[in-house]
Amino acid sequence: MTAATYNFAYLDEQTKRMIRRAILKGIAIPGYQVPFASREMPMPYGWGTGGVQVTAAILGPDDVLKVIDQGADDTTNAVSIRKFFQRVAGIETTTNTADATIIQTRHRIPETPLQEGQVLVYQVPIPEPLRFLEPRETETRKMHALEEYGLMHVKLYEDIARNGHIATTYAYPVKVEGRYVMDPSPTPKFDNPKMHMSEALQLFGAGREKRIYALPPHTDVVSLDFEDHPFEVQRFDRPCALCGAEQVYLDEVVLDDRGGRMFVCSDSDHCETRQAEGFRGELAGEKLDASTSDRTEEVI
Amino acid sequence: MYVAVKGGEAAIDNAHRLLADRRRGDRSVPTLGLDQIAEQFALSVDRVMSEGSLYDRRLAALAIKQARGDLIEAIFLVRAYRTTLPRFGHSEPVDTGAMQVERRISACFKDLPGGQLLGPTFDYTHRLLDDELDGDPAVEPGALRDGAAEPATQIADILGGEGLIEEDPLAPGEPGDINQTPMEFPLSRAMRLQSLSRGDEGFLLALGYSTQRGYARSHPFVGEIRIGEVEVEVFVPELGFAVPVGRVQLTECQMVNQFKGSAKTPPQFTRGYGLVFGQSERKAMAMSLCDRALRAEELGEDIVAPPQDQEFVISHCDNVQATGFVEHLKLPHYVDFQAELGLVRTMRAEYEATRNEDVEIREAAE
Amino acid sequence: MDAAVTHAFEGGFAEPVLDAQATFRAVMDAMARPARIIEVAPRAAPPASLSPLVGAIACTLIDADTPMWLDPRLGESEAVRAWLSFHTGARLAAAPAEAAFALIADPGEMPPLDRFAQGTQEYPDRSATLILQLDSLEGGAPLTFHGPGIKGEATIAPVSLPADFVRQWTENTKRFPRGVDLILSAGEALACLPRSARLIEVEV
């Protein structure tokens, strides 16, 4: 059982055809979840098997692949998935957003605006935006068929009544082209506006739940809201401590047990690119030189 | 001092190296041979074959060794491998009536054609730890019957002769294949049985148990359990007939359940069915209880309990899916957690502000 | 074994994995950007009356799981049927409504779009994809579309579509999310019209 015995990009051709057909139907019906006969993959369900199957079905030898998790290329699961494709498809990989033709992601959309010709592949755990309101597939399917989304609005409004806010901060539901309510995957709602009228094709794969859906480029994607409570994205009251970027999503890093915190770009490529261009945040000077090996110990 | 985490790849490599080390354990202890696992942990191997959906003792043994004995991990290894295998075709339905039985018991009749055969069972063993097994005591070979076995008539045929049990006709058309088609509820019974047969033993056991305690009670009797080998045949169009391709060991459970009958149907017993690879009586019995419970709608029963709810049972019975999704919670989620943290902080600040206002108003009033 | 069947073994993908991937990416890009013409080198060589590009798309998307309907011009060719059967493994659908894919060499004479599988309101993906072999994607009456995948609007002017195509397509988009999707091909040019592409009424 070596890599040599597996087909290019791991999946057999019949499986690829089945997934490719589902992708085309997904593109033709933006926001609609196409059922597909998801396969077992050599990584666990819930760890990106849907995204991996979509990537495997579209990937060619000329593609350049970027894989991110939490916005970063070097998070363990991103490393693992990137390694998988290097091994089974021998393709080129990159961490640079602009150089990638396919970007597989979990939980973030890159800060750098995507371009025509790029494909963003999302790993989706629960594709059904109505699932937490109605656990039955037979019921939610009917609700989508009848465009019956009242329950979702009631839920969001109850949040406001109880908390003064819509309590959904990630996987914030969107409406696609005025028709389907869609789950954007658990990206922070900060990223929702990036889906709207994107230049890139966006594909969503949910392996365990066996669904594929899509947003073609230049597609109308609106986050659900109310006139008196318009949709708002998260704001951070300070720039990235390393590159000084504003209007980006930040990770909070705990520095000590006395309340010390710093905030740094979640998109590691964006941050590194800015630092290379000479941008500096307030703590950038204190950054130690590569103590990579020490850090690796800690990771273990 | 903060340094952006690098070296995820090295960390993964080191983790896997340590895993290999722990798997091997003390090097002075001989490594396990796959034949030892296949022979002496045969029931673990059976479970891995059954829930892994691949009948291959050697690969199941390898998976158990690789998984350090974690059977769900082993099942996952086998599933991930089987999905890469090309499909050459499908077998003819196996004839469990023609099974070479090693064990066959019925709880419904004292005796029946084919007899009660206890076979290699834990039943009636006293669960006393046997220190002799610390060594390698001599073991007598099993006693074998003389001559050919009497054919073991299936319980359904015995009761069916009197019309006392519902018929179980072949559903028309192809049975479908849970590997090839996305699930669409409601599922046919054939699709449900496929899912149950590879479903998690513990999950089905608990659900089956709950039916006995009144959550969709079905008054079950073990019509019969049989364990043994059957021949697997594949139809070859070029030859125009089916040819045997091998033998597999199966455990089959036919549960006989009460049914009142209706205006249209005379009173008769109903069926619950379980069939799994290898020797796994507990799983086959639990499966047949779950199958019967899931037939509620078809039999005109009210759906009042989880074991009757096909979306609930079938969507959650696969342990490879379940373990993946439960365990994915340990992956980094800090981007989403940050989003929640931001909201909770905002709401906290608002709460404090309102409370301070209230205090000020009260103080002013006093 | 007659001549046609012998020929059926030839003309498939030379490199099935990579050829299918390249052809699929072209179709996916075209479906994601409706009414935009994409040039793609056909990698198959089917018997006459089936174009190399349509042959390549068939090899890419169609298999034993997807019944296929052939219009009379393709269906009456023993060579075409044998070639498609060998290279895709697909079975022929008895009627347009039963097909997942329809291959159409005579678009002017094709059955109305609403005679193909439209999908259901709950499963709109269970609808047909029609692969049309046209004389040209340019030079005909201009058709202007808007909708997802289109920045502003997009115009193509295919030659040899049915005379009442504008009316038929307008009805097709009205059925959304149900409806058929079209893959238009001419020579080495490809353009797609998913059901989401809405025609903009042009003053005549």
TrEMBL record, chain A:
GO BP terms in the entry: organic phosphonate catabolic process
Q: Does the keyword S-adenosyl-L-methionine apply?
A: yes
The catalysed reaction is: alpha-D-ribose 1-methylphosphonate 5-phosphate + AH2 + S-adenosyl-L-methionine = alpha-D-ribose 1,2-cyclic phosphate 5-phosphate + methane + 5'-deoxyadenosine + L-methionine + A + H(+)
The EC number on file is 4.7.1.1
Q: Does the keyword Cytoplasm apply?
A: no
**The family this protein is said to belong to:** Belongs to the PhnJ family.
How is this protein named in the record? Answer: Alpha-D-ribose 1-methylphosphonate 5-phosphate C-P lyase
Q: Which organism is it from?
A: Pseudaminobacter soli (ex Zhang et al. 2022)
Classification from the root reads: Bacteria, Pseudomonadati, Pseudomonadota, Alphaproteobacteria, Hyphomicrobiales
Automatic annotation (TrEMBL), chain B:
Alphabetized GO MF terms: lyase activity
Q: Which InterPro entries match?
A: PhnI (IPR008773)
An example of a Gene Ontology BP annotation on this entry? organic phosphonate metabolic process
Protein's name according to its UniProt entry: Carbon-phosphorus lyase complex subunit PhnI
One Pfam entry for this protein is PhnI
Q: What is this organism's lineage?
A: Bacteria, Pseudomonadati, Pseudomonadota, Alphaproteobacteria, Hyphomicrobiales
Give the species this sequence originates from. Pseudaminobacter soli
Keywords noted in UniProt? Lyase
The answer to whether UniProt assigns keyword Lyase to this entry is yes
UniProtKB/TrEMBL annotation, chain C:
Question: Does Nucleotide-binding count among this protein's keywords?
Answer: no
Task: Give UniProt keywords alphabetically.
Answer: Lyase
**Superkingdom in the source lineage:** Bacteria
Q: Which Pfam families match?
A: PhnH
InterPro entries with a match to the protein in the record:
PhnH-like_sp, Phosphonate_metab_PhnH
**UniProt key word Lyase:** yes
Q: Which GO terms describe its biological process?
A: organic phosphonate metabolic process
> Which is an annotated GO molecular function term of this record?
lyase activity
* NCBIfam families noted in UniProt: PhnH_redo
State the name under which the record lists this protein: Phosphonate C-P lyase system protein PhnH
Organism, scientific name: Pseudaminobacter soli (ex Zhang et al. 2022)
